[in-house]
């Protein structure tokens, strides 16, 4: 198939990327556009859904043009997305009624604490596999319906958003649903994104009536849930639209599950860690939804057409790559590439620990009120020590997850496949191998999130026939073996818990 390809829209936290892959999984087109980060109040994070859609059209068009490709050469399009980020829009006009509430947004922490006080945490965990947290879509949707400015009607009157929702006039969805809706006109999500809403029964594979009642969200607002790789497809692009072609949209996966798929972690025990804005460590547990006793999430890994759901254990770390961005924001570094040079310039952090809990702590701690903390500084502390401590914090947080993962699954990780922007940093990869005392395997194509959604879409339309073809495409760029003595790694990690404890339960309104 020399002249046809599969496209992938990768809608992430900081920007939107469009990539085109050939049959060997090689990148033949790549275009990217950032979007605005909106911070109305401390702990609040929003995106403009209309800007995201406009950027999506722009990167698809630019990517095809730069590679001299025509949209008719795309056999399918796959979508991957920042997961829990939530949009509510008008069914008739397609217009959002409020900015998207981003997965990092903490404004519903009080509501989560109400659920805890009401004794509903265990019920939520049993149905959804999730810890009750402001991270997920349920409380975000509830907040929008309760607090957004209602849309003005032609008569200049306003109607309560709750009433409009009950009358079937409003739709909600994660970013995948928003893009599928704008591309095809259909209101659809896949099982992986549904599993991140805190509204979906991951074993019954249905929206849960008790949870919908708890958050007062009518089922009519919710998208239809489909397999991640769907032979029936989610619809096609409009031949009279911006692409000028009828292309099937046939695959969707939340970004972390897409990376699991792109890393070809198709078998129980396979694990990967993606280093982006945050880091997300997933292990395939097969057809069994493994319940976590150590603060991990039980989630849906993926589903292919006509096949059972594959589950995963997940450790969600909210801030890793974003901690490096913060170093830039406060002028400690000029660019991310500088971190390795600065970190190598000192032998250690001299006892400095940085806990990047800027938006709370995720797994395994789950503390929405934790905040970023630097401890152990002396008069001799220099920026090199803080930069090194920031890189070490990424490795320590990953070790937290690795130990919880082994305790829950009973499977010892011998190799961890890694991807995402931060893994271009050889110093970080080696540090990660040292701290968790495990081989780190970096693939040649590190944009595995986009690749995973392309694989899902391509399998659905027969561009690839079997997952064995995808396994054959996976190639190692470099393996990193532990070079640090286990005793030294344990000693460095030993004070990490002390530093985390200092960051906890910090943010309280006056």
TrEMBL record:
<feature type="binding site">
    <location>
        <position position="83"/>
    </location>
    <ligand>
        <name>glycerol</name>
    </ligand>
</feature>
<feature type="binding site">
    <location>
        <position position="255"/>
    </location>
    <ligand>
        <name>sn-glycerol 3-phosphate</name>
    </ligand>
</feature>
<keyword id="KW-0418">Kinase</keyword>
<feature type="binding site">
    <location>
        <position position="421"/>
    </location>
    <ligand>
        <name>ADP</name>
    </ligand>
</feature>
<dbReference type="InterPro" id="IPR018483">
    <property type="entry name" value="Carb_kinase_FGGY_CS"/>
</dbReference>
<dbReference type="Pfam" id="PF00370">
    <property type="entry name" value="FGGY_N"/>
</dbReference>
<feature type="binding site">
    <location>
        <position position="256"/>
    </location>
    <ligand>
        <name>glycerol</name>
    </ligand>
</feature>
<feature type="binding site">
    <location>
        <position position="255"/>
    </location>
    <ligand>
        <name>glycerol</name>
    </ligand>
</feature>
<feature type="binding site">
    <location>
        <position position="321"/>
    </location>
    <ligand>
        <name>ATP</name>
    </ligand>
</feature>
<dbReference type="GO" id="GO:0006072">
    <property type="term" value="P:glycerol-3-phosphate metabolic process"/>
</dbReference>
<protein>
    <recommendedName>
        <fullName>Glycerol kinase</fullName>
        <ecNumber>2.7.1.30</ecNumber>
    </recommendedName>
</protein>
<comment type="similarity">
    <text>Belongs to the FGGY kinase family.</text>
</comment>
<feature type="binding site">
    <location>
        <position position="13"/>
    </location>
    <ligand>
        <name>ADP</name>
    </ligand>
</feature>
<feature type="binding site">
    <location>
        <position position="84"/>
    </location>
    <ligand>
        <name>glycerol</name>
    </ligand>
</feature>
<feature type="binding site">
    <location>
        <position position="17"/>
    </location>
    <ligand>
        <name>ADP</name>
    </ligand>
</feature>
<feature type="binding site">
    <location>
        <position position="83"/>
    </location>
    <ligand>
        <name>sn-glycerol 3-phosphate</name>
    </ligand>
</feature>
<feature type="domain" description="Carbohydrate kinase FGGY C-terminal">
    <location>
        <begin position="272"/>
        <end position="460"/>
    </location>
</feature>
<dbReference type="InterPro" id="IPR018485">
    <property type="entry name" value="FGGY_C"/>
</dbReference>
<feature type="binding site">
    <location>
        <position position="135"/>
    </location>
    <ligand>
        <name>glycerol</name>
    </ligand>
</feature>
<feature type="binding site">
    <location>
        <position position="277"/>
    </location>
    <ligand>
        <name>ATP</name>
    </ligand>
</feature>
<dbReference type="Pfam" id="PF02782">
    <property type="entry name" value="FGGY_C"/>
</dbReference>
<comment type="function">
    <text>Key enzyme in the regulation of glycerol uptake and metabolism. Catalyzes the phosphorylation of glycerol to yield sn-glycerol 3-phosphate.</text>
</comment>
<feature type="binding site">
    <location>
        <position position="321"/>
    </location>
    <ligand>
        <name>ADP</name>
    </ligand>
</feature>
<feature type="binding site">
    <location>
        <position position="14"/>
    </location>
    <ligand>
        <name>ATP</name>
    </ligand>
</feature>
<keyword id="KW-0067">ATP-binding</keyword>
<dbReference type="GO" id="GO:0005829">
    <property type="term" value="C:cytosol"/>
</dbReference>
<dbReference type="InterPro" id="IPR000577">
    <property type="entry name" value="Carb_kinase_FGGY"/>
</dbReference>
<keyword id="KW-0547">Nucleotide-binding</keyword>
<dbReference type="InterPro" id="IPR043129">
    <property type="entry name" value="ATPase_NBD"/>
</dbReference>
<keyword id="KW-0319">Glycerol metabolism</keyword>
<feature type="domain" description="Carbohydrate kinase FGGY N-terminal">
    <location>
        <begin position="5"/>
        <end position="262"/>
    </location>
</feature>
<feature type="binding site">
    <location>
        <position position="13"/>
    </location>
    <ligand>
        <name>sn-glycerol 3-phosphate</name>
    </ligand>
</feature>
<dbReference type="GO" id="GO:0004370">
    <property type="term" value="F:glycerol kinase activity"/>
</dbReference>
<feature type="binding site">
    <location>
        <position position="84"/>
    </location>
    <ligand>
        <name>sn-glycerol 3-phosphate</name>
    </ligand>
</feature>
<dbReference type="InterPro" id="IPR005999">
    <property type="entry name" value="Glycerol_kin"/>
</dbReference>
<dbReference type="GO" id="GO:0019563">
    <property type="term" value="P:glycerol catabolic process"/>
</dbReference>
<feature type="binding site">
    <location>
        <position position="421"/>
    </location>
    <ligand>
        <name>ATP</name>
    </ligand>
</feature>
<keyword id="KW-0808">Transferase</keyword>
<feature type="binding site">
    <location>
        <position position="135"/>
    </location>
    <ligand>
        <name>sn-glycerol 3-phosphate</name>
    </ligand>
</feature>
<feature type="binding site">
    <location>
        <position position="277"/>
    </location>
    <ligand>
        <name>ADP</name>
    </ligand>
</feature>
<comment type="pathway">
    <text>Polyol metabolism; glycerol degradation via glycerol kinase pathway; sn-glycerol 3-phosphate from glycerol: step 1/1.</text>
</comment>
<feature type="binding site">
    <location>
        <position position="13"/>
    </location>
    <ligand>
        <name>ATP</name>
    </ligand>
</feature>
